[in-house]
Request: fold
Amino acid sequence: MVTQLRLYTIQEGRLDDFIAAWRAGVYPLRTTMGYTIQAWAVRERDEFVWLLSYDGPEPWEDMERAYYASPERKALDPDPVQYLVSTEQRFLEPVTLKVSPADSQGDTAS
Reply:
C-alpha cells in the first residue's frame, strides 16, 4: 500500500469552505477510484491534513494521472484548490511496532 501525507494551508477564514468543497468533490471521487482517506483540520493554523492511500493493482503515478485527467475532477465546482495557500506532500513508510525479544537484546534504553 502506498500512503501519502498531504498538508494544506488554507486561506485565513476559509477552512470550512475548503472542507465543504473537498468533501463534496475530492473525497467521493477519490474513494470511487479506490483510494482510502483520513482527514483532520487544524483550525488554529488554517490547515487541512490528510492521508491518501492506494492499495490497488495500478501504480500510484498512473492513478494520480487518471484522477487529475478525469472529467469529474476537471468539473469540480467549487474546486477546493481555490482556497489553498500552500501544499506539502510526503510519501510515508510504515514502521513495524512489534518488537521481538531478539530485537531488544542489548537494548538498555528505557
Notes: The chain has one domain: 2-90. Residues 1 and 100 are 24 Å apart (CA to CA). Residues 2-90 form a domain with the Alpha-Beta Plaits fold (CATH 3.30.70.100).
